[in-house]
Fold:
Amino acid sequence: VKIGIDAGGTLIKIAYIEDEKVNYQTFNSRETDEASKWIKEKFNNPSICITGGRSEQLAGLLDAQPQTVVEFDATASGIKYLAEKQGYQLGQNYLFVNVGTGTSIHSVKESQQERVGGSGIGGGTLLGLAYLLTGKLDYEEIIRSASEGDRGNVDLKVKDIFEGSLPPISGDLTASNFGKKNAMASKAPSDADKVAAVVGLIGEVIVTISTQMAFINDTSSIVYVGSSFRSNPLLKEIIKEYTKMVGKEPVFLKNGEFSGAVGALLTL
Ligand code: ATP
Ligand code: MG
Structure:
């Protein structure tokens, strides 16, 4: 059996071939013991390739020394594989954006990836700010709450500034994330409103940087991957709409969060 592992800062992603198809499994990165135990119990003498910042830590717990691969290359080849399987025509040149704990942006030219930028604003920011603002720690609870919130009680839109007169850009654009200070002071936003605004902040920062990188690198498609999109349609929607608005093509791959693990699997 072949197993590809991407041990990231937050989550361990595993892709393996069983019954001639790729299967997926996830563990929390703090649970390396559990992950290694699962692998040892489920597979007999597997070949393993591992990538990601926590590779060494997890590799040390496995029976045999696994192969390793550079994370960015693994992610690039996993994206290429998943995109082809899912019928996307990405062409030779495109951008991919991995929104993990942090965010990493890569340009692909003739199948070679190059890291062209990044941001500390990522999935970890969502968890950290949500905790500071609401005391919530559970990911699923946070994003469920975000989907019920109203950013309009926290974020200042262009039309809030122009109040009735005609603005030079769309009034629905965010003028200032978290900028509705006076309204918040007279009526406190709910926890749901706060986390919805956090998702908005993260999505808008990432999509702004990513689309500018797409213009600089002259690519038309932007592939967004990473576990930060898991069960998070709000984040997807913000990024999708803004990417389309500036004339670029957003692509969200099914199982895109497993790109690194799939890429590691493909090297075996
Ligand atoms: P990095 O690549 O930056 O080292 P990573 O590979 O661990 O980190 P991902 O797994 O791609 O990062 O994404 C982690 C993010 O996904 C979290 O910060 C969180 O926003 C989100 N997430 C999705 N599901 C979960 C979960 N079950 N538990 C915690 N975070 C989750
Ligand atoms: Mg990662």
